[in-house]
Amino acid sequence: MRILHIVPEFEEGGVERYVLQLCHEQVKHGHHVTLATAGGKLERFLPKHNMRVIHLPVQRKNIFTGLYSAKYLAKINDWDIIHAHSRVPAWVAWRTSVITKTKWIMTAHAPYSLNIGILPFRHADGVICVSESVQEELKGYLPENTITIPNGIRKPSVLWQGKYFPENKKFLYVGYLARRKGLDTAFNALGQLKNYDWTLDVVGDGSQRHELESLAESLGISERIKFYGFRDDTDEFMSKSACLLFPSHSEGFGLVVAEALAAGLPVLASDLEPLRQFSYGSLIPHDDVSAWTEAIERVINGGSASPLSSEKLIMFEETAQRTEDFYKRILN
Hints:
The protein has helices at 14-28, 63-76, 87-100, 132-137, 183-191, 209-219, 234-240, 255-263, 289-300, 316-331, and strands at 2-7, 32-37, 51-55, 81-85, 103-108, 126-129, 146-148, 170-174, 199-203, 225-229, 243-246, 267-269. By secondary structure, it is of the alpha/beta class. The radius of gyration is 20 Å and the shape is elongated.
């Protein structure tokens, strides 16, 4: 099968890592895979064989660059199926499909705003939602041929060492640095706990980095927080930390939480619908600094993290196989 994936950029993020793993699995299954993207750091981790990368401005919310990208891809036109990830790629995929008559699908990775930006979704030959909560949120904007395929996880390269507070004083954040990730909430909570002994490793990069560095400085906690930027050894960080902080405001799935649970690392997590499938108790209101302060203080004093279980996790091989089965259903 010849597959085209369209992703805005290929920097760090749950969507990008999902596509990266999917490309590896599809090449492993003998398929020929093309990635159309504006580019990014993760490109160097793509498969070396049966893999092609096309650089296009598919991240820009601009009708003219969208038309340009669609026409460029239509001239190549050697794919059996087009798989879009995110809203702008959905527009590009739709336009390319109109020109070439190639079947196209969309993966909805998040509960997007219900506006004209998601108009192409209804015109897709099929849509995959990464969680039931995303499918419910987008209800009415999806085609009849819509299914839920949860994000699978890769097998961790190392497991958590089992060192918790107070023996281990390291908190960890892994992910993109943007407002919707809520790291400012965690910073404000930690700023109220300066009398305790703790540190925080921030693994990831993004548009909010300088703002967060300034916030840490203003709270008087900058010396305890280390920004590492993009890293490809997140498993090592998870194995040596005491607790993962996941204060996100909105998620389609919460892949970082799933990977932490697979490694055995305790997590403090926001109360988000996709995470409730892993929960056997109450999670933390995402924008409540007082609640986050209380939860972090509890962990520092040797108390429990969020009540989350790894029992419902699936491996990414299953996600890839179910995606391939969906392709075949669409093409037949």
